[in-house]
Amino acid sequence: MGSGSSVNVQYKYSLQKSENAFKAAVLIQQWYRRHVARLEMRRRCTWRIFQSIEYACEQDQIKLHNFFSYLMDQFTPSSSKERDFISRMFVSGESYKEAELEKYCDYESIEVPDSYIGPRLSFPLLPDHATALLEAFQQKQQLHARYVLNLLHETRKHLKQLPNISHVSTCYSEEVTVCGDLHGQLDDLFLIFYKNGLPSPSKSYVFNGDFVDRGKQSLEILVILFTFLLIYPKEVHLNRGNHEDHMVNLRYGFTKEVMQKYKVHGKKILRMFQNVFCWLPLATLIDQKVLIIHGGISDTTDLDMLEKIQRDKFISVLRLKKRKESSRKPEVDVINGESPSGSDAAGKEAAPRLSLQPQPAQAPSTANRPEFSRWLRKTVQEQIDTCRRLVDISESEPEELTYSSMVSLKDVDEPCWTRQEEWKQILDILWSDPMPQEGCRENKVRGGGCYFGPDVTEKFLEKYSLQFLIRSHECKQEGYEFCHNRKVLTIFSASNYYEIGSNRGAYVKLGPDLIPHFVQYQANKTAHMLTMTQRQDFAVALISRVEESAFRALREQLFAHTSALISAFKAYDMDNTGMITLSNWATAVESVLRLGLPWRMLRPQLVRSSKDGMLEYKSWLDDLAMEQRSQEHIQSSLLEIIYRNRSNLETIFRIIDRDHSGLISFEEFQQTWKLFSSHMNIGLTDDGIDDLVRSIDFNKDGNIDFNEFLEAFRLVKQCP
Question: EF-hand domain spans which residues (predicted)?
Fold first, then answer.
């Protein structure tokens, strides 16, 4: 009896102990799940903040350049001096003739001093040159300007021979590696090469655009990629991204980077980069089944049109030069052997008429292909030159035929697209994003391109017998993401894009079976040396750091719109109590910033104190102003203006600063102020502008730097 009772007690004790352990395990598991869920929620909120601010900035960039395009169409110069200035200001990206470009960028005249210890290039390039460049850039060395210009010259020659859509086959290599945006982050490129191997005859790469901007080593990335492109032209393929655009580079850092690294020859290097960018292919096709484009598609994307577009004409996709349409109609009429109808002529009597006399000679027989081709080229060129002279457009065009500009016999009978249609094709593939909803609509978040749904993807793939699309253009937390029933793959290769720890980078490998295999990474040297427990603590700390960075950027946005927020809050404060509900606060903030953020969820991080669900909004705005003033010792009203307009002002300044010297002349400032004053709702007379110019030249050197430019903006904002 005694022993049986003892066993029973021991059994109950053991059972109770197991039950307690089980309950403890469940509690720990529940706590851990809640903890992970909270971390994930924080990470997603942080992500939305970063992405919303990024897209709003891109939208501002396009709005600014739409404004300049409007000025080009509407502004009537009052003198030849104003006309010349506008021409210089807005035609900075036009193509040079071949001889002019070589003369302008004469790299052979640049001497390399004996004291130079960096890498040296000689052409044709060899794999050893690429290795030397990689080692030099790892040691923070800089390639001499002569070699940079020489490399760009050779790269341009090579790119001009390529079609708009590159074709890659997995038959010639074991696999093809596709990389997304790098955005000047050289460490990510090094990590890709370390993990996957350098380009070689058995290792093909496709780099899908956005090599530059935002990061600090865009130039080094381009030098490395162009070097491998010339060494392995059949294995390395580069697509153009929306940031391979000199107007975008003015805002996002590449222009500034080049000028800081090459103060003497920076202008020549920039000019060559602009020309090289416009020759980059627009897409890559793997095994005729997988299409790689930077942004996306629309319901009007036409691969046949993309293959025939003269891509080098679109120096900047942000800016469509509508004036060139006037030279297009005579070209079409001549090719088709037609003349403008009488009704059209009668309807345009008020406009200058383009005299096409003398008429072109009789066309030779199409049986004689060389003679017919020469006649066609000569006729078209004569009419284009005539149109340019009549409308006083003094821009240069390339002299020789290239792959994308060649007019063949079969092109004559095919439809001739307008400049607007061609421009939209390129804009859509560089700027568009996928969306989960059906259909296709304007991408108002970015300000350019469109949103395309799964139905648009399905029709496009079916039309061209494709399996799926690979695109980049959007930062993804894991470095890649499928959508549209796994028919659209986004690949993004710049890790830590918004902040250290914000996202992974990734690349994808495709073999003959075209099944994607992903490799993820994060260029963070510290994390690799930590234990598993330390890595978990490090991950939590990183989330907190990224989160704080995102909220700091968001508070800057709120402060930059202080005046508009006050007006929005007052609309809910009918009795002038200085108080509004937290719900009205969230609604008002979204109505002003239009970032599409979950403000009610973000409120605890942004509103530190409230009474009975009410917010004293003036006190809250004062706290925001105090926080920003602690970082910048400037009066609050001016600081608000600068935070809201600085990016636009800096972009405008760089557009005016033609030689990228960091200085603009009095005349350039005066002429420009007339152009963009309406954009900022500023009204000044000519005498007022003259007085302003003289008053802001503080050091009296006859030029205006960017700080003086900001001061001018402050002074004008204070004018009644």
Answer: 560-595, 644-679, 684-719
Label each residue of 120-171 as H, E or C.
CCCCCCCHHHHHHHHHHHHCCCCCCHHHHHHHHHHHHHHHCCCCCEEEECCC
From edge to edge, which strands make up the β-sheet containing 440-442? 433-434, 450-452, 440-442
**Token pair of 118, please?**
């960096």
pLDDT digits (tens, 9 = 90+) for 182-191: 999 999 999 9
User: Could you identify the residue written with the tokens 């007052």?
Assistant: 570
How far from chain centre, in Å, is Cα 637? 31
- Look at residue 450 in the predicted model and tell me its pLDDT: 94
Let me know if 243 is a catalytic residue.
yes
Give me the amino acid identity at 660: H
β-bridge partners, 452: 434, 440
Catalytic residue among 243, 265, 294, 484: 243
Q: Please tell me the total number of residues recorded for the chain in this structure.
A: 720
Q: Report the pLDDT value the prediction gives residue 692, as an integer from 0 to 100.
A: 63
Give the pairing type, strands 204-207 and 516-521.
Answer: unpaired
Helices (H), 171-325: 186-196, 218-231, 246-252, 254-261, 266-277, 303-308
- Let me know: does 279 contact 323? Beta carbons within 8 Å: no
Mean pLDDT of 462-491: 96
Confidence check: pLDDT of 330 > 70: no
pLDDT at position 333: 35
Q: Which value, to the nearest 10 degrees, does the dihedral of the CA atoms of residues 631, 634, 635, 640 take?
A: -70
Determine the straight-line distance between the first and last CA of the chain, rounded to whole angstroms. Answer: 104
Contact 213, 184 (CB under 8 A): yes
Q: What is the mean pLDDT of the chain?
A: 76
d(CA 620, CA 602): 15
pLDDT band at 547 (very low <50, low <70, confident <90, very high): confident
- CB proximity list for 490: less than 8 A, separation 6 or greater: 180, 434, 471, 472, 473, 474, 476, 480, 481, 482, 483
440 has a pLDDT exceeding 70: yes
From residue 493, alpha-carbon distances to 184, 289, 332, 443 in Å are 11, 23, 43, 23
> Is 711 or 305 the better-scoring residue by pLDDT?
305
- Give the per-residue pLDDT at 35: 67
